[in-house]
Amino acid sequence: MEEPPELQIPGIVHPLKLFDIAKNEKRLLYTSAPMVRYSKLAFRQTVHAYGTDLCWTPMILAKEFNRNRLARDSDFTVSTVAPQPPTVVQFGANVPQELARAASLAAPFCSGVDLNCGCPQSWACAETLGAALMERRELVRDMVVETRDQLRRDGWAVGKDSDMDHPKGRSVSVKIRVHKDVRKTIDFITTVLGPEQDRHIDFLTIHPRTRQTPSSIPINLEALEVLTSTFGDKVPILLSGDVFAMDALPFTSPLLPSSSSSSTITTNTAPKGTATTTTETPDLNPPMLKNLPKLRGLMSARALLRNPALYAGHSTCPWSAVEDFLYFAARAPLPYKLLLHHVAEMCGPGMGPDKRALLTRAERAELLECGNVLDLLDFLEEKKGGIRTRSEGLRGGWQGKGKYE
């Protein structure tokens, strides 16, 4: 985080440019969610290798980020060489100057900054962070306005669409939940978005659950339909929530691959970035799904943890994704327990209809008994019949790293 300002960080692309590219390709933008502990560099690099266009960091507390160099180095890691995924840094904040200062520190190393207005955890809401901000729309507006003004004073190009091709172009965005009464959410977005000729944010992510709604309850598609219809022409909108499988989304969109009368099943033996399909008996009475023509992108969290190749068309995690993750983690190290958790998630069943897994439940329990990385690599080699890394020296790269033991 403290590199000299002239250092060139690869992978910095304005998010609006990525929205534009996806639209020209007649598809939705594919993004990974901000996940506490999990959205670290190695994981971001892995999902990016399998079709994720734009990645989020975990939520970072702006106050700590501003005051503590150790916190900056711990919370936000970037790569000075490719692959460096286009990355949005998400902050938790409730003071305009704190968010603006944190954005100023992060801007040289990322594509944009995002304000978290969606975290429902009690500790965050008690500090007027996350979903608690859904009741403070004027404060949220003031925070994004101050942040954009600060970035402009720092010399960053924050003119929204007009600056998406500028090398110093940066975005400011917000991730929200919804209210029980969708009219309150409309008022919130209207206030935060600001005037149409000079909107305060570049894009918006909507998680269509209330602060009190558990993740086991399906997302509120009626609210999402109203909000995308109302604001979809004014600002690009991402959906966060229930993005579990590309062939089992709870809605339709002209930017999704056209549905046929047959189901698509993806094998986990296809090459990276591709999928093999088989035809099943067509459903003669398919359910009527809501059409969301103004939705511009998808954001996945839990499903990407299980299957980093979700957006590449794989219905379950392929072995190659596990290999790639280990390759990236050797160069952007994680605490061993976190590394082990990632691998265990990838080796389990996906969150979509296809429940195949790389390892059985008993094998995953055995995997969790591995005491260090070398044991883990030996175990995976045995189970896969010779797992191969992307680099000749990967195994040696893990040697001598005491923090992994």
Automatic annotation (TrEMBL):
Residues 33-246 form the DUS-like FMN-binding domain. It catalyses: a 5,6-dihydrouridine in mRNA + NAD(+) = a uridine in mRNA + NADH + H(+); a 5,6-dihydrouridine in mRNA + NADP(+) = a uridine in mRNA + NADPH + H(+). Residues 256-287 are annotated as: Disordered. Its cofactor is FMN. Pfam families: Dus. InterPro entries: Aldolase_TIM, DUS-like_FMN-bd, tRNA_hU_synthase_CS. Keywords: Flavoprotein, FMN, mRNA processing, Oxidoreductase, tRNA processing. It comes from the Eukaryota. Catalyzes the synthesis of dihydrouridine, a modified base found in the D-loop of most tRNAs. Specifically modifies U47 in cytoplasmic tRNAs. Catalyzes the synthesis of dihydrouridine in some mRNAs, thereby affecting their translation. This is DUS-like FMN-binding domain-containing protein.
